[in-house]
Amino acid sequence: MLVAATLAIFVAMILAIIRGISGPTFYDRILAVNMFGTKTVLLISLLGFVMGRPEFLDIAIVYALINFISVIAVLRYSDTNQFKHTPGAEPCNRKSTEKEP
Amino acid sequence: MDIVINFSSGLCLFIGSFLCVSGGIGILRFPDFYTRMHAVGVTGTLGAAMILIGLMLHSTDLLVFAKLVMILLLTLLLSPTTSHVLAKAALHNGLMPKLSQNTLEQSSLDLKSKETASSKF
Amino acid sequence: MKRHTISLFLTLAAFWLLNSGHYSTLMLLLGAASITLVLIISHQMDVVDQESQPLYLTPNILAYYLWLVKEIIKANITVVKHIWLGNESISPTLKTIKISQKTDMGKVIYANSISLTPGTVTIDLVDDEIIVHALLYKDIESLTAGEMDRRVSVLER
């Protein structure tokens, strides 16, 4: 059952990464990355039990904190102009960043 | 006794994996960003809780149990903050949700959110 | 102030003891030293108060948590059902809702409870109004009915 749950988490991670690659807006990508991080925490805990090494749980705790802080840190800059969403155009693409001096 | 614990732990893990895969399907299937956020909410709350409870039933050591409880509490405390920050940033930067009804309310709300956005930043 | 310091000390001590797993004298002394350092720093920063250690919530919070877990399970079942039913079955709604809480703590608990329940997300909180996005119009109706609002207000006193 542990191995089956690990495989299911892998499937959920693959689905999240598909949304992260194809996501139409910038926020979809951050959402997918956040979900990927939450699933990674579960994956690390499950792998710890599969391999019989529950020390992995320490890494899982640290990863949960890092995941939270990374999302907050990216969105800390959400009041800059690069984050403005204009319908029909991809925000944050390379052209708009190159225009910045 | 052992069989009961093994069975309930397996059941919890199964429900948790099902919820996580459902959330993954939801994030691909839903039409816009705000609805996808609800799909991620499923994997973040009950999906994670069920898998961690299943692991708790497996654990024999008190310390391992305590660490699993800690991970569960961290997940439950951090996930509403993350989704709120993400939704607020998206709305204030002009990403309007696709709504099915109450379009009148939407237009009044649009004005209001722009007001708060200009006052905050 | 004294109660809050003791509560913070107990939390930090439990955190250290459960995370370390080594109970030799040296390790326990190092733990005591780091707890003391954290207590001194947090006193210097003036953050040990009602807000960071909300002890007055303790008598009622357990019943609220049980109710919230029940709500979360119900909401999860609904959202998963609508994920498998597809896009035609959902009715995304954005609405401003008045809240009745007076203190900051009550408002934060209410907003976080809404976000924690799948199907509804708090987008913004301005004075005594919150903007909520819901997957189903039904969820907004049950929020405006005020069951959760009433329970958080009971918690606040």
Summed up:
The complex is a heterotrimer of chains A (about 100), B (about 120) and C (about 160). By secondary structure, chain A is an all-alpha fold. In chain A, about 70% of the residues lie in helices and about 0% in strands.
Largest sheet of chain A: none
The major sheet of chain B is characterized as: none
Query: Rounded to an integer, what's the Rg of chain B over CA atoms?
Result: 19 Å
Rg of chain A (C-alpha, Å):
17 Å
| Estimated share of beta-strand residues of chain A | under 5%
Q: Into how many domains do the coordinates of chain A divide?
A: 1
Write the layout of secondary structure elements.
The complex is a heterotrimer of chains A (101), B (121) and C (157).
Chain A: H1 2-22, H2 26-50, H3 56-75, H4 94-99
Chain B: H1 2-29, H2 33-58, H3 62-92, H4 103-120
Chain C: H1 2-20, H2 25-45, H3 58-85, E1 93-98, H4 104-116, E2 120-126, E3 129-134, H5 137-145, H6 147-156
Antiparallel strand pairs in C: 1-3, 2-3
Describe this protein's structure.
The complex is a heterotrimer of chains A (101), B (121) and C (157). Chain A has 101 residues and is mostly helical. Chain A has one domain (2-80). In chain A, 71% of the residues lie in helices and 0% in strands. The longest helix of chain A is centred in the middle third of the chain and has 25 residues, at 26-50. Chain B has 121 residues and is mainly alpha-helical. Chain C has helices at residues 2-20, 25-45, 58-85, 104-116, 137-145, 147-156, and strands at 93-98, 120-126, 129-134. Chain C has a three-stranded antiparallel beta sheet, with helices on one face. In chain C, helix 1 packs antiparallel against helix 2 (25-45). The radius of gyration of chain C is 20 Å and the shape is elongated. The model of chain C has no long low-confidence stretch (mean pLDDT 88).
